[in-house]
Amino acid sequence: MKKLLMASAAALSLGSYAMAQEVNVGIILGFTGPIESLTPGMAASAELALAEVNAAGGVAGNMLMPVRADSTCIDSAAATAAATRLIDSDNVVAIMGADCSGVTTAIASNVAVPKGVVMISPSATSPALSTIEDNDLFFRTSPSDARQGQVLADVLMSKDIMNVAVTYTNNDYGKGLSDSFIAAFEAAGGTVTINAAHEDGKGDYSAEVGALAAAGGDILVVLGYADQGGVGIIRTAIDTGAFDRFALGDGMFAQSLIDAIGDDLNGTIGTVPWAEGAGADAFVAYANANGVDPDGSFRRESYDAAALIALAMAAGGATDRATVAANVLAVANAPGEQILPGELAKGLEILAAGGEIDYVGATNVELIGPGEAAGTYREYEVVDGEYTTVMMR
Q1: Over 90: is that where the pLDDT of 7 sits?
Q2: Is residue 390 part of a domain?
Q3: C-beta separation of 17 from 62 below 8 A
Q4: Residue 158 half-sphere exposure, CB side, CA atoms within 13 Å?
Q5: Buried-most residue among 25, 112, 205, 371 (CB within 10 A)?
Q6: Virtual CA dihedral for 253, 258, 263, 264, nearest 10 degrees?
């Protein structure tokens, strides 16, 4: 990142960019709240893409400046207020975010869509977002939980786990993923002994774990957040002996969870949106070369979301909100020259010459239907205190 920021500053100092304007791009993530350990890496990845564009001269001579805001992940009123400030006061051209599904829905419905601002979320995965009234302004680079539920059910079935208890964080994300998982699991012949919501922010989860234990199950499926209720549920389950095996959704994938639970988390299985192939490898190499840790939840998706915003502007040759909206799908999908992480300058050159690009990015970007990402998932297991890949699904 240091190298790119220096390159961006150098570009601004050149005569041809002496009159460059700054265009603000919003980055709204839960810098406080139940996924606060994930969001710094997500923001850094998005800002890496913007810095890469600036190092190549920006868009139409304009430098793209990230402006951060806190979604809190869980407080829709606070998230809406933060997004309003980004849109009205900071005049952002588009928003990379939000993160959690509930606040993302609130921002889109209350502020972004009415004001004509594109949102590209790297991590809001609720199936309900597929049907919101968005005027073609909402996109996401992570796949819907309608798919993740099926994938997680497939993982359990592949291990002959047929009897589970389920707990989910009591919000749009948790409920959507729980519904999707249970429908797929039961359709495949599995049995769910209990499906119980839990609230985030509590100091004591003994009552919730007691109910889960009473219902029984071979494994406890936890569809929550690594820095909030999810970790509390697991810690209490282990301390009381209620469960010693866990299956997790993507909101639980974080180093902080391993740090908090320790060796008792070994054997835990789960799913998280991920990618492999040339684009994923290119992101790892490019991020490492520029001081950004590439290994974490939704970092690839965040880079891709910010890159799509920049490339959409470049495709239209302007840095206004309508231009972003009109060109996201065009740069995200074929036809066109394929563009990987670290190749944004190449993409900008092709677009400036009137050509077409197919942004592959870090996650093999392909936007389908109403701005949905097709996506792939990493099946993982915790072994010796580390997340290890079982396979890609």
Answers
A1: no
A2: no
A3: no
A4: 13
A5: 112
A6: -60
